[in-house]
Amino acid sequence: MKRLLAPVLLALVAPFYANGQGDFAFNNVFTAVGVPVTINTSPGTFNPADGPADAYVGSNYTASLYFLNGTVTDQTLFDSSNPILFPSANTLFFGATGFAPVHGPTSDGAGLFDGGDVILPTVGMAGGHVTVQVRAWYNGDGLYSSYDQSLTAGQNVGESIPVPLVLNFGAGFPPNMDGLLPFTVGIVPEPSSFALFGLGSLALLQFARRRK
User: Fold this and answer.
1) What is the pLDDT of residues 52-67, one digit of tens each?
2) Most distant CA pair in the chain: distance in Å?
3) pTM score, two decimals?
C-alpha cells in the first residue's frame, strides 16, 4: 500500500513545486552574520555627493532583489545569465547615511534593510532552488527609481555575492539569506570604459611586440 501511495504523493507534490510559489526573508538583518552595506573607501571609486567614504547607507539608498532559478555561485556566470529583477521587493535602507554612533546597525539601522517575506514564482525551479542577489543603489530621495538609472547617472551602486537558497513552501518559516556577506557601493565604470581600456591595452601590447 505504501509503495502505491509514494508515487501518487510525488505526482501531487511535483506540480506544486514546479508551478507554485515559494518564499524567503529578504533582509540583511536576520542573517547568520552582520552584513551592513557601506560606501567604498578607495579614492575615486565612489561618488562623494552620495555620502562619505565608509559610511553606512541610509534611506537615500534602495535594496533590489535579482534572482535566477537553480544554484549559480559564480558571479560572472550569474551576471551573464540575465538575472531577473523582482521590483516589488524594492525596499529602502533604514536610518540616514552616516557614521556610528549616531548612524549604523546598532543605532538608527543604517546599513540594514528588511523587505519582509518575498514570494517568488517557482515555474521551472527544481525543488525550489534559487540564487538571489541584493543590489544596492543611491535613489537620491526619489530622484532615481532603479539600479540601472542610478548606475547610468554615475551614482553609487553595489551588489552582493550570489546567495543560493531553497525556498519555503507551505506553512514553514521562510529561510533567511544566510551566506550573504557585507558589500560596498561605489561608482561602477560603464561598459564603454572597459572597452576603451581593453583597446588601449591591446595597442600597447602590439607596440611592444613591434619594438621587440
Assistant:
1) 999 999 999 999 999 9
2) 82
3) 0.80
